[in-house]
Structure formats: C-alpha cells, structure tokens
Amino acid sequence: MHWISILFIAAVTAGTVVELWLAQRQVDAVLVHRDQVPEPFAGQISADDHRKAADYTIARAKFSRIGTVLGAGVTLALTVGGGVAGLDTIWRGSGWAQPWLGTAVIATVACVVTVINLPLSLWRTFRLEARFGFNRTTALLFLADLAKGLLITVLLGGPLVLATLMLMGHTGRWWWAWVWLVWLGVTLLVTWAWPVFIAPLFNRFSPLQDPALGARIEALLERCGFRSKGVFVVDGSRRSTHGNAYFTGIGRNKRIVFFDTLLSRIEAAEIEAVLAHELGHFRLHHVRQRLTASVVLTFGGLALLAWLARQPGFYTALGVPAPSAAMALLLFVLTVPVFSFFATPFMSWWSRRHERQADDFAAEYADAGKLAAALVKLFRDNAATLTPDRIHSAFFDSHPPALERIGRLNALARAS
C-alpha cells in the first residue's frame, strides 16, 4: 500500500476516533450536571430549562456521532474505495471532452454526497429539533430551501468549477495563481451580494419598525463610527424558535440583522448591548481578519494542489488510476477536510479570542451587565448547555463557555 494511502486512512481513522471520544465526553459532562443549575445562574434559569438544555445537548452529541461515522465512510468509499474513479469511468463512456467531462463528474459526486446526507438533515430538522420544540420548518419550506440552495449552487458553483478546470488545463504551470484570482473575485462578489440579493431568497428582511429602539441603535452606531445600509429584522421564526443576531456584508452592503425571535425576548438596553458586541467584530477588524485568513489559506491550498496534481502517487494512492484535472480537484476537496480537522482547536481558540474582544468593545460602548442578561436569555431559550466538557469546548466551541463569559461580563459591569 502506498504511504499516502496509509497516511490518509490513518488520518480519517484518527479524526473519527477523536470526534467520537469528544462527543462521549460532552455527553458524560452534561449528564453529570443535568439536575443542578450552576450557582451563577440560579434564579435566572429554572431547573426545567437547565434539564432541557442538557437533554438537547446530549441528543445533538449522540446524533453527531452518526454523521461522523457516515462522513468517514463516505470519504473512504469515494477515495481509496474507488467511488470517484468509478463515476469517472462511467462518465468517460459519454464521449464528452474536458472540461465538461470533469465538471459532470464533480457534479455527480456532489449530488451523491447531498443525497447521502439528506436523511440526516431531515432527521435533524423534523425529529431532533421538533422534539425539543425548536422546529417550525414545514415540509414544503424544507423542499423550497433545498431547491433554492441547489439552484444557487448550480448557478455559482457550476461556472466556477468549469472555469477552474479550464484554467488548470490551459494556463500552464502557474494555473493555480489564476484560479486563486478567480476564486478571490467570486468570494468577494458573493460576500458583497449575499445580504441584498441571495439571503432574501430564503428569508424576509424588514427594516426595524420600533422608532424608539431605532433611535437608540442609531445613537450607538454614531458612537461607534459605523455606517450600514440599515438595521433589519429577519423572519427566523418561520424555520426555528432559536434567536440570534449577526453582521453581514462588505462595502456599502453592510447590514445588521436581528432575528425576530430574539427581539421578542430581550429588552431595548439588551438589544443595544448585543448590537454593540456585533459592531465590535467589525470595528476590531475581525471580519477582515477572517476574510484575509481565508484568502491566504486558499492561496496556499491551491499551490499545494498544483504540486500534488503533478504527483502520480497522489492519484493511485487515493483510488484513481487515471490522472486528470478534475480528479486532482476532487481528491483535494475530499482529503483536505480530513487533515484540516486537526486545526479545529486553533480556529476555535481564535474565534473565542475575537468573542472576548467583542465583549470588551460592547462593555465600552454599552452596558456589559445588559449583554450578560441578554446572553443568559439566549442560553435559556436556545437550550445551550451551561456545563460543557472543557476539552470538547476547547476543541469545537467558537464562543467562550457560558460560566466564563457571563462571569467576565458581570465583572466588567461591576468595574465600570
């Protein structure tokens, strides 16, 4: 067996074992504290709400194990198992020339993966989320979202794949630099267009209607030196009772978005504090930093792909006997997540660092105590566990644990 095959199988196995182990740690940690509300939250979160959050977290962790094992199996079946090579052989019988042949193979693999994952998505939405009272998605809405998502993928992804394969085949040794420029342009275009042209295909975005709250928000925006296309309310309640707020877009298409489910649960001062946190991500350049990191990683990844594409062992070790641009791209897309998984703790740490900085920004421009109060309500209403396993949290969580974050915000409030 080729050393690349051994390394790849070992990485898939190790990643799967780590995920399953972390999921079990999460289940055990949450189960131990299921019947005892942590002291800092006593009086704010009821015992019933705490037990619901524990049961929801445990159910999600157990469900995630199915996806972990299935994902590993699909990855191995498509690569060393010969799945990609088999689909390539079938399509070669069509007589199509490149890059159309390669595009068809890639599209087929994408469809196969989508169909395999569809039952998990259905179960998550209509069984797991519904069991805990969160789901409001109807079967018709689910199908409509699926159809729109597929249409956008075809309209954006299809031409991008086709252009990539054409550049790989006709621009010589430095094809990857040209591909990087194309991908960079598409990424910036989609990021710019998403809030105005794409997101409204799935949700209704309405300008904030509360004049008093609007004036309060405008004053906060002025204090923070922020300009946007406005503050919008999204009809998240059509699909779920979960609440959230986020900042989206670049350039003149920047938008601040609140879920209607969030606005119905927290008071004006808390909304202002949540918004100050989101503005912190922008003013502290977190959005720019993450976009820059993505651009740099894409550049490095394409350079690595260009080198691997010239190595015959890369194909044969991963189950593909006939090298081609499409096979190189497919194998790279399938193998990179296997190895990048082990960088998850670093990315999670970086995200938590940004969240703490955004909390500090919110404490400077709004009331840290009100942000803490809003987060407690979000933890309660979203059934987020207050007692995660520390190793699971360090590995996966993009936000600091609830006890740490609320304690820190209350300390900032007392110090102000």
Describe the structure.
The protein is built from 16 helices and 4 strands. The chain has helices at residues 3-32, 47-78, 83-92, 100-131, 139-170, 175-198, 211-224, 260-263, 268-283, 286-308, 312-317, 325-340, 344-365, 368-381, 390-396, 402-415, and strands at 205-207, 231-234, 245-248, 255-259. It has a 4-stranded mixed β-sheet. The protein starts with a helix and ends with a helix. The chain is mainly α and 416 residues long.
Q: Would you spell out the secondary-structure blueprint of this structure?
A:
Elements: H1 3-32, H2 47-78, H3 83-92, H4 100-131, H5 139-170, H6 175-198, E1 205-207, H7 211-224, E2 231-234, E3 245-248, E4 255-259, H8 260-263, H9 268-283, H10 286-308, H11 312-317, H12 325-340, H13 344-365, H14 368-381, H15 390-396, H16 402-415
Parallel strand pairs: 2-4
Antiparallel strand pairs: 1-2, 3-4
Helix pairs in contact: 1-2, 1-15, 2-4, 3-4, 4-5, 4-12, 5-6, 6-10, 7-9, 9-13, 9-14, 13-16, 14-16
Descriptive key words:
single chain, mainly alpha
- Rounded mean pLDDT score: 92
Quaternary form:
single chain
The total count of helices amounts to: 16
| Percentage of residues in strands | under 5%
Order of helices and strands: HHHHHHEHEEEHHHHHHHHH
Into which percent range does the helicity of residues fall?
over 70%
Spatial order of the strands forming the largest sheet: 1-2-4-3
DSSP strand count:
4
Structural class assignment: mainly alpha
Instruction: Note the overall shape.
Output: globular
The first-to-last residue Cα distance is 64 Å
Question: How many strands, what sense, and barrel or not for the largest sheet?
Answer: 4 strands, mixed
Runs in which pLDDT lies below 50 for 5 or more consecutive residues are none
The value of Rg in angstroms is 24 Å
